[in-house]
Amino acid sequence: MAGEKVVETTGLLGWVDRRFPLTSLWKAHLSEYYAPKNFNFWYFFGSLALLVLVIQIVTGIFMVMHYKPDAALAFTSVEYIMREVPYGWIIRYMHSTGASMFFVVVYLHMLRGLFYGSYRKPRELVWIFGVAIFLCLMAEAFFGYLLPWGQMSFWGAQVIVNLFSAIPYVGPDLSIWIRGDFVVSDATLNRFFAFHVIAIPLVLIGLVAAHLIALHEVGSNNPDGVEIKEKKDANGRPLDGIPFHPYYSVHDLMGVVGFLIVFAAIMFFAPTMGGYFLEANNFLPADAFKTPPHIAPVWYFTPFYSMLRATTDEFTWVLVALALIFAVGLLFSKNLKGIWKIIFPVILVLVAVALRVYDAKFWGVVIMGGTVVILGFMPWLDHSPVKSIRYRPGWHKLVYAVFLINFVILGIIGTKAPSPVLNIISQVGTLIYLAFFLFMPIWSRLGTFKKVPDRVTFHPH
């Protein structure tokens, strides 16, 4: 910092510092990293996600010590861990509970980003890294879901991998390549094990590191959306900032304690959470000759699974109509000028044609993947003049509420057996989800916005 005297460390710490920037890293990312002083409880979930990642890695290491990635032995090895390994049941339940709790804290962490505009300039890259972490987390959960080799693991993997066969031209070969066989088999189990234990965790750790480095480079957002780096004192410290350590490191301990109480309560008293965390069918060994009456993914995938199931042949006609309406609207739009006035409508017309050329199953896969990927475009879809929901029009909050309720309803429908009524509801829900993002450039800048304060609003408590 400007005007501060640099104190050289001595002894063992000094010896390390001359060979590795330990003290400078500590200062840059903790003791001299200035965070806004108005963080609220929504800011617990970033550190909690890091905590759950550590829990998953540590418990995973102990699980791997006894697990057998073999189709003939996988299920019994999990039973062996549960029944014979000392405290193995605790390790297994910590890992299975941790998988669901990881998604709970990540969903809440992303929700906070939506509320307070944490994806806006200059944090676009922080948000993109976060979306990439979410995609990796989904892949990690999917690969790990097969490993217990229970009925739902086996048939869930069969259904999801078969989706890739809907991709034109390369789909059938791609699905065989992913499985390593014509059906889910020992080869599939081995490669999923390799991805779950080695490949995806390495990528995930790298992305988490990149996410934190990018965050600390531009600084944390806050509930007011005020950039604290713009106002500093004579020593270069943000006027509205406080050192992350010890203030927020201690502050986050309260969130950690509360989280661990909930985590322990689930783990010891309701590890299956009524079949949402661990399904009853997964306590039965995989049987290729006996299909469960209803195959559904774990709860954290169900909103996207609902959108996959919603994409029927009839529904693609609705998408065709919407694409053509968008094309006409862009053609007469005053915001588009030059060559873009032709390019974008032509692209939408081509999309409308493709919707009828290719199978509805393929478009279901596209929508399921696209509804996640579209999150990465949030920094460029949101045209609001303010970041935080605090200073947006009241009806913007209603839009967010509808989006969240719709997401929850889609998640509930995804756990149910398909029916004509539920299918219509999921189709409406899919349109609401897509409309939230596709119309965001329009609705996000409408209405009367409140004046954003020059300094953060903070009330000691």
From TrEMBL:
Where's the Cytochrome b/b6 N-terminal region profile domain? 12-224
Membrane-spanning residues where? 41-65, 99-119, 125-147, 154-172, 192-215, 253-278, 315-332, 339-357, 363-382, 394-415, 421-443
Query: Coiled coil: which residue ranges?
Result: none
Outline the extent of the Cytochrome b/b6 C-terminal region profile domain: 234-454
Chain positions recorded as heme b b562 binding sites: 95, 196
Q: What does the record say about how the cofactor binds? A: Binds 2 heme groups non-covalently.
Answer yes or no on keyword Protein biosynthesis: no
**What cofactor does this one take?**
heme; heme b
Q: Which InterPro entries match?
A: Cyt_b/b6_C, Cyt_b/b6_C_sf, Cyt_b/b6_N, Cytb/b6-like_sf, Cytochrome_b, Cytochrome_b_N_euk/bac, Di-haem_cyt_TM
Q: Which domain of life is it from?
A: Bacteria
Q: How does it sit in the membrane?
A: Multi-pass membrane protein
Q: Where in the cell is it found?
A: Membrane
Report the GO molecular function annotations. Answer: metal ion binding; oxidoreductase activity; quinol-cytochrome-c reductase activity
- PANTHER family according to UniProt: CYTOCHROME B (PTHR19271)
To which protein family does this belong?
Belongs to the cytochrome b family.
Q: What is this protein called?
A: Cytochrome b
